[in-house]
Amino acid sequence: MQPAIPLFRRLRPTAGGPSFDARQVISSLTGRNYRLFFFGQLISMAGTWMQTVAQSFLVLHLTGSGTDLGLATAARFLPMFLFGPFGGVIADRLDKRRVLYVTQSLQGVLALAFALLVAAGTIEMWMVYLLAVGLGCVNVFDNPARQSFISEMVPPEQLSNAVTLNSVSMNMARVFGAAAGGILVAGLGLAMCFALNGVSFAAVLVSLLLMRADQLYPSTRAKKERGQVLAGLRYVRDTPELIVPMVMIAVIGTLAWEFQVTLPLVARDTFHRSAGTYGLMFSVMGVGSVVGGLVAASKIHPRARALGLAAIGWGVAILAAALAPDVPLELVALVFVGYGSVTFNSMAKTTLQMASVPVMRGRVMALWALAWLGSTPIGGPIVGWVGQEMGARWSLIIGGVPTVLIGLLAWPALKRIDLRAALGRNDALVEAAR
C-alpha cells in the first residue's frame, strides 16, 4: 500500500511560500459539481439546524431535564459510536454518489415522520429516542460517504479549499437555520421546523442528479475483503499525521462539541430566555464560523502545529462564553467560539483527508465522524448532567479546559510532524537538483 506521508508532503506549500492567497478562498467553487454540492448542502443543513433547535426545545418541553436533553442528543450519535467504522468501509467499497441518494432520502423521510408526530400531538420521549437512533443509523453511512465524496468532485490541488468551504457551508446553514428555527418554534410551532427540514433534503438530491459524471475524479474502490475495519484502524494508528489529530478530535468532540446540549441550558437556566435566544446564540456562532472558515479557506495547506494553536484559541473562547455575565457579552464570546470551532474542525479534516491514501479515505473519515460526532453518546449525557447539577456555565467549562490542554499536550507531536514534512521537502529538492 502506498504510504500516506508522501502525499501529505507533496500537497503542502514549499518553504517560504505564501500563507495567504485571497484567490484560494473560493477556488473549488469554480467546478460545476462541487458548486452544486455546496449549495445543495447549504439548503439541507439549514433545515437540519431548524430541526436541531426544534428537537432541543421539544425535549425540554416534554421533560424539562438537561440529562434527558443530553441523552436525546446522544441517541442520534449512538449508532455512529457503535458502527461508524463499518460505514467507512461501505463508503470505500461503493459509489459514494449512489450511497448519498439513499441516505439523503431516508433522512428526509425521518424528518417528515417527526413533523407528523409533533403536529398530531402524539409525540413522546420514546419516539424521540427511536427517531434519533434511526437518523443516527442513516448517518453511519451518510457521513463518511459525504465527507470522502468531496475529494471526487475537485482536483487534488483544490481539496483543502473544498474541505474548508464544506465547513463554511455547514456554518452558513447554522446562521440561517438556527435563527429561522428559533423564530419558527416561537411563531409557527415545532412541527414546521421538522417539516421544512424534511423538504430541504430535496436540494441535495437535485444537486447530485445534476452533476456531470465526466467531471468527477472517482477514487479506486476497495475490494471486499475480510478485516477491512481493522485495517483502517491500524492504518490510522501507524500514521502520525493521522493519529495525533484523531486523538485531539476525540477529546474535543467528546467534551467541547456539545453545543446542542450546552446552549439550550445556558439560554434557559443562566439567562432565563426562550428558544429565540437559543437560535440567536447558534446564529452568532455560525457568523463566527463563516468568517473563520473563509480565513481558513484562504490558506492552501496549513502546518500541523496550527491545529494545536486552533485548539488552544478555541478552548479560551469557550471559557469566555462560560463566564460571560450577560446575553450581549455571551453573544460576542460565541462569535469567537464559532470562529475557533470551524478553524479547528476544518484544519483537522483537511489534515486527515490529505494525509490518507484514497483507498482508505472513507475509513479515515468514518473514524473522524466516530471521534467528532460518535463520541456524543459519552459526552452528551455527561455535559447535560453537569449542566443540570452544577449549573449551565459548568457544561461549557468542562469543554473549554480540555480543549486548551489537548492543544498544549499535542504541540510537541505536531511540531515533529512539521519537521518531518520539512525534511521531506528538502530531500526532494536535493534529489531534484542532482
Mean pLDDT: 82
Assess the beta-strand content as a share of residues: under 5%
The helix content, as a percent range, equals over 70%
Question: What structural category characterises the helix and strand content?
Answer: mainly alpha
Rg (C-alpha, Å): 21 Å
Characterize the largest beta sheet: strand count, sense, and whether it forms a barrel. Answer: none
Order of helices and strands: HHHHHHHHHHHHHHHH
The rounded distance between the terminal residues' Cα atoms is: 28 Å
Shape by Cα distribution: globular
Question: Helix segment count?
Answer: 16
Low-confidence stretches: 1-20
Number of strands: 0
Task: Write structural notes for this entry.
Helix 6 packs antiparallel against helix 13 (327-355). The two termini are 28 Å apart. The longest helix has 42 residues, at 392-433. This protein is mainly α and 434 residues long. It has helices spanning 5-10, 32-63, 66-93, 96-120, 125-149, 159-187, 190-210, 228-237, 240-255, 259-270, 275-297, 305-323, 327-355, 361-372, 376-390, 392-433. The protein is 79% helix and 0% strand. It is globular and about 55 Å long. The protein contains 16 helices and no strands.
